[in-house]
Amino acid sequence: MRYTITGATGQLGTEVMQVAIKKLPIEELRISIRDIKKAVKYKEMGVEVKKADYRNKAELVQAWQDTDVLVYIPSIVHPSYERLPEIENVVQAAEEAKVKHLIFVSFYADQENNPFQMSPFYGYASRRLASSSLSYTIMKNAMYADPLINYLPELIEGGNVVYPVPHDKISFISRADSAKAIVAVAADASLQDQTYTLTQNRSYTMTELADTLSDVSGENIGFAPMSLEAFAQTYDEPKGFGALLASMYEAANRGLLAIVTEDFRKITGREAEPLASYLKRHYPTD
Asked: Which pairs count as long-range contacts for 29-37, CB under 8 Å and 24+ apart, including other chains?
């Protein structure tokens, strides 16, 4: 077998590699990466390293030769339309390289009526895969729990969760659990050729999230939602990112990010780690 993993030095990719190195034979692992200088540690461990930029189809084709399972983690480029050449290159290169199976790591905000500014990419990518000759699996992540750890000090200082979601819920998954599920699917053909949505076993209103964060931090955190406009202006760094984030929370307020499934358990045989447990394990309390 040959497993090729893209985005291996990114936040999720790093978690995927940590699991893959433990669960899969090192000689069967390959990464394709735009900047191979960032992959020195993997090369020293015996992982094959190939240079490949999503914007260069020829590089992708060369890097993905003899791949049994390709794990495609998209770039973080926005706005949405700037990723369309990426998915076209990925699909065409995978076809030309005769990749046997592709795992597309997606996001659950991909509904046709979703106002999230990146939703068009995720919706198009799944339809593009459906129109290809590839065997593929789609793995949609819920909202990552990880950023809440670094965000907690700001919430404690301000005293409130300020997400503009007064009326509905959000579900979460940690990158570590996502990685476990991705590698499990990569390693087991019986789990492939499906679409999964990875979530914990419940979703949260923002009041419930504030209560959870209060319990984790030992501080009193309330819920005082900003307007979408104020949130976009407050978190507009880099320029345009605030509107992107606000559009995601607009989707949440329409009930589009409250999805909870049993997919993680179906893949791994256990429940995803609950939000409170995950945050308590990672938030420094001293």
From this structure: 29/3, 29/5, 30/2, 30/3, 30/4, 30/5, 30/63, 30/67, 31/4, 31/5, 31/6, 32/4, 32/5, 32/6, 32/60, 32/63, 32/64, 33/6, 33/7, 33/8, 33/9, 35/9
CA distances from 58 to 53, 104, 107 (A): 9, 20, 27
What is the CB neighbour count within 10 angstroms for residue 182? 27
Residues whose CB is less than 8 angstroms from the CB of residue 109 and which lie 6 or more positions away in sequence, other chains included: 116, 118, 119, 122, 248, 251, 256, 257
Q: How many residues are there in the chain? A: 286
C-alpha to C-alpha distance for 96 and 64, rounded to whole angstroms: 9
Per-residue burial over 245-272, b if 16 or more Cβ lie within 10 Å, else e, is bbbbbbbbbbebbbbebebbeebbeeeb
Q: What is the pTM of this model?
A: 0.96
Strand, helix or coil for residue 35: coil
DSSP class of residue 37 equals G
Cis previous bond, 225, omega within 30 = no
Decide: 104 and 141 in contact? Cβ < 8 Å.
no
Write out the H or E segment, with its range, that includes residue 205: strand 203-205
State pLDDT tens for residues 10-29: 999 999 999 999 999 999 99
Confidence label for 285 from pLDDT (cuts 50, 70 and 90):
low
